UniProtKB/TrEMBL annotation:
Gene3D superfamilies: Vaccinia Virus protein VP39. The gene is rlmF. The keyword Methyltransferase applies. This is Ribosomal RNA large subunit methyltransferase F. Its main location: cytoplasm. It comes from Chromobacterium sphagni. Belongs to the methyltransferase superfamily. METTL16/RlmF family.
Amino acid sequence: MSAKPPVTSAAQLHPRNRHQGRYDFAALIAASPGLANYVGKNAFGDESVNFANPAAVKALNRALLKLFYNINDWDIPAGYLCPPIPGRADYIHALADLLALGHKTGIPHGAGIRALDVGVGANAVYPLIGHAEYGWDFVGTEVSDEAMQNAQAILAANPDMAAHIELRRQISSKAIFRHVLDADECFDLTLCNPPFHASQAEADAAARRKWQNLGKDSGKRSPKLNFGGQNRELWCAGGEEAFVCQMVEESVALAGRVYWFTSLVSKSASLTAINRALKQASVTYSRTIPMAQGQKQSRLVAWTFMDRQQQNDWRQRRWLPPSVMLAGG
């Protein structure tokens, strides 16, 4: 393939990420006044929020989404995953770099690009940021009725976004791509933030470690991650390794209908099984791209069944404006 996308380390956000440097709390509060209730001085005398307080994290997210992406009235139900916005934006920018590979005019923008968000959640963050940054259209799938209803409420508060983001109910908790796509429907991208843990006990242990790092764990209670999360958001049988391997297996049936499949992978130990699954599926190309996810190093895995000529044909057919296609014969 042509030039590699920019590498993002745990200490460095993507160059196009809007969230470089320290938070400007004055600007954030001006955009979302409710954040003022949670901002105070930390031990170093700097303005901050208490990241062990889910309400403070949610208020910060709401302000970030309003200030940088003009998203109104963003909210999630108590206990649902409250994603760190800078890390989620990094995934979107990495996807844009992926689409730019081999494309003479760089990153494709606009509603002609369609992305499928597997597990859009109650927060709908990926479609919101993806459309705000690049104008792409999204389909988001979700197994939870409550999460779907909340995501729909966010879209209702942002009608310009709603015109470009469709939500679909996944009827089977054991399926990923099956049951939610129309016959012959095509996507330029799929993305997913899979449930990382293999069991409730593993998720609880991870939560306890996080609380200990924040100095909040008394050892007398079952901790919650400060970013929240329902069971289906945090764990599934086999964890992310099994989930992404199933995704690879199901992707074979969509080989000619998706340009790039992708998923976040939290644990480097999961890559061995995932790479084995990619080999068994006979993908044409695969990539593992390092990423920043807060203070934690992560990565996304991407794969395609298309060779270079098929990718070029896809771009010519789907991405070029009609006038350019006619001029080129």
